[in-house]
């Protein structure tokens, strides 16, 4: 038997790679994330890296506003990839300074929140120490005194800290009204008193104590009567004051060799002795640049770049008002003085301010005012010509600049930082493969055309599929869509993710790797209102698809203005737009399709203003809609509005046509629920329009059917009485206004998240007495049901019918894995896969919970029947605890998690999950395991080897059997 | 003289009031710093924890407002000036799982009025400064299992090959029984059925010659 050793080797080979779970190294195969840093505020250059400080706008659900937050990051200079990122705690809403330790460049200091001093490692972002100066919150400037000591200047004190340990060595009080400033490389502080005398105050730290013994100094600016100081700044060895009489006063400061005294010499230079232009005046000073250069702002909004060297003030150049000047470097780091401007043709030009001819160079293709908005700021990082250009869309562009005309600027990389503030999202299919399209058509057959048309289309599609097979390309695939699909792509048919952002930029991202396929910038987006929604008005199935972007825009008049922009979601090109000059109250998609497969977009506006009957506008509006679809809208289309101020919810119904030409309809109020002026409406939950419900009933253990109460018109309103901390969940039929049921929870916090699925309402709430996060579920069933009736009508149901016919179950569970910030239902394409609720925690992790765990019919162990076990009901236990590997975010978090979006994929078992906060995260999940696809870890080689071995064994066994039979016969 | 005395008295009083006010202001300023409450702690118990990738979050239970701190390289952290209220303290760490804690700030001006209790056992009040140890290593991924020869026999593919191999040995044996039975049947059958016209020679009695 020579085959025995071979078989043994094969056995061992088979076991290699056989696994069922996900290993750490598999992270990134089915998920991706975009780590954002926010709006760039300052940059420090290292040889291969950039240390950056940025501002983030974090959404606060309690105030419905954005708060300032800050981040520090180290970027790879050549690729822009984040090496590390630290988010400054969100409660610190000011950032005063970042200061590089010149003596050891691997460390730096930050001041935030006015009193928190931190010492960081540049290498890995490690916090070495932090010190909170509790006596004040108005510290604004830090400087290194020596290798061991740091001086922090606060409004009312000067604090000295140990650089090694961060401990406070000593402090001295100063007059908070004098607004002291420090002079670089000296221990002197200065301020200007009311008599226009500049006072110098020596504060040093020597021999473990604050030393103020050195002589004070005072210099008068000698301003003429009526002349006023307009600005001041400190250079190295000099202080510059500007005055309204167009004079520049330079105080030249020299410390005596023994350091005990200060010599100050004053020069007064008239503006017009420096420039020839007349009729302009000095407004103030602007920024200090390396080599004692600084800018003075003039009345014509241009800037004068000056240099003070060898006790002489000289003009370098005049910078016209349309130029944006480079930001001053940190810690006096060398930089090139770039200026940039927007041209009328949309191009953005870059030049060096110091060059006499200025020789502007247009930035590379792809960076222009149409795509990115105007230039906002420029950061020069070194003397080698590298600079960062930040545009109005918060994008950061790394440019390699050459002043030579024959060497145009090179774009090295771009970071789209507006993705740090996503407002709304939607997911749409890419153009489907022909066979998938056929399947979709099959699915929609009953509701669309007749048999002949359907048959014709089927044959046509199959022919097209055959043609594309031979031609090697799809016949109607969108040629504009370019997706970089590398070998690592694990999604069979990726989707397009649409995101709108606070910067006014809309993105189309490929769901497979997060690649930005297209972007579109709305320059007039109103960031203060920050209202944005996305609706898919035409599916990809009916190419070309269409999406409606509803955004608030700025208006010169006080009235609110919005724009509905209809775009192709596959390439971002706008096909049309509509301007709405009224406040939008409600926007949604109607399940009504026109003759070109457009779903109608309904927008309720506050017109006439503050009237009880809002106007409803419908898009698109044409003759077909007017004649064929209006009848299906009238008295059937209902919507509701939530008034958070008055704590009311009011239902409306489209009643009649107000303007037949413009598609304006009149809606009338039908019902109203008032929760009382002392109540707050915390949240309103409704069913997910993308959810498909497959099963209308539950099969019980005794083989009976329990019909589900599937009413998509049910909404749940969470209201709170703040005085009593009494939470009420009210289930209302949003069409008829009938209150189905209400539940109350005492001692509840003011934070509720709601998810609807099939016949269930799942909501998360916090109990202030027990200090526990709860998840409650309401499951609704019907006692009897008319099985022949395939649609549910809220209009034909009375309150008595509901009360008599409904079985409502309720259960509450303790969720022990953190506080819940948001919840979402995991959607699958056909709704066959078991339902999962995605729970987003405050810490930014996402946990999918199978609905079977949050089932109101879970019996208590004492009440459990054999039929319950047969049905698969899990006995009730109050705790919901899951192992860490259940988190779909693994060991990462999404800071300031705001929302979760899901949609089904071409595989029923798999859902795509998109979550966003400061970062954007996307992954594929299989709530009931990937039953319709082999897992990534499936050992294909082992399967092949097994098949071959079995084949060989079959032959062996056949031959062996024959030989045995022959032997037998020879006996 | 009487008026002068009165003026002097008023002057002295004024000086006293001014001095008193300034003293009070100084005192209130100095006590303001001391009255800021503070919750200090340290993450301990493990050596390989990366503190710069860890955050300690204090979440207000009433409105979910979040306050966070980044521990320093020694794992120490501190919250200052916490408003009165009830909080949940979570440690966000990608390596380890920590317990949750309930933090009650009863009066934000007095330090010892901050009470910290483990969420799992709220009867225990933890001493301060806190020393927080991880509950377990965070098993966010499947762990590689070292090779075990017995695991071979759990692999369905190996089982199928093994079963087939066994059957290779067994099936011929079984078929041989069937053949023997059939042979026996065959031996009996000729006796019962009609005789063949041409009989097969009996090999046992046949003589083989060259």
TrEMBL record, chain A:
| BP GO annotations | protein folding in endoplasmic reticulum
Query: What InterPro entries does the record point to?
Result: Beta-prop_EMC1_1st (IPR058545), EMC1 (IPR026895), EMC1_C (IPR011678), Quinoprotein_ADH-like_sf (IPR011047), WD40/YVTN_repeat-like_dom_sf (IPR015943)
* Annotated ER membrane protein complex subunit 1 C-terminal domain residues: 757-970
UniProt-annotated location(s): Endoplasmic reticulum membrane
Q: Does the keyword Repressor apply?
A: no
Highest taxon of the source?
A: Eukaryota
- Tell me the first and last residues of the signal peptide: 1-21
Which chain regions cross the lipid bilayer? Answer: 938-957
By its UniProt entry, which Pfam families does this protein fall under? Beta-prop_EMC1_N, EMC1_C
Summary of subunit composition and partner proteins: Component of the ER membrane protein complex (EMC).
- The name this protein carries in UniProt is ER membrane protein complex subunit 1
* The organism's taxonomic lineage, starting at the top: Eukaryota, Amoebozoa, Evosea, Eumycetozoa, Dictyostelia
UniProtKB/TrEMBL annotation, chain B:
| Protein name listed in UniProt | ER membrane protein complex subunit 7 beta-sandwich domain-containing protein
What residue intervals traverse the membrane? 152-171
Q: Which UniProt keywords apply?
A: Membrane, Signal, Transmembrane, Transmembrane helix
Source taxon at top rank: Eukaryota
Tell me the organism's taxonomic lineage.
Eukaryota, Amoebozoa, Evosea, Eumycetozoa, Dictyostelia
| ER membrane protein complex subunit 7 beta-sandwich domain span | 54-159
Residues in the signal sequence: 1-20
Q: How does it sit in the membrane?
A: Single-pass membrane protein
The Gene Ontology CC terms held by the record are: EMC complex
Q: Which residues form a coiled coil?
A: none
Cross-referenced InterPro entries, in alphabetical order? Beta_sandwich_EMC7, EMC7
Q: Where in the cell is it found?
A: Membrane
Is the keyword Membrane in the record? yes
Predominant location: membrane
Q: Name one Pfam family in it.
A: EMC7_beta-sandw
Its source organism is Polysphondylium violaceum
Entry keyword annotation includes Secreted: no
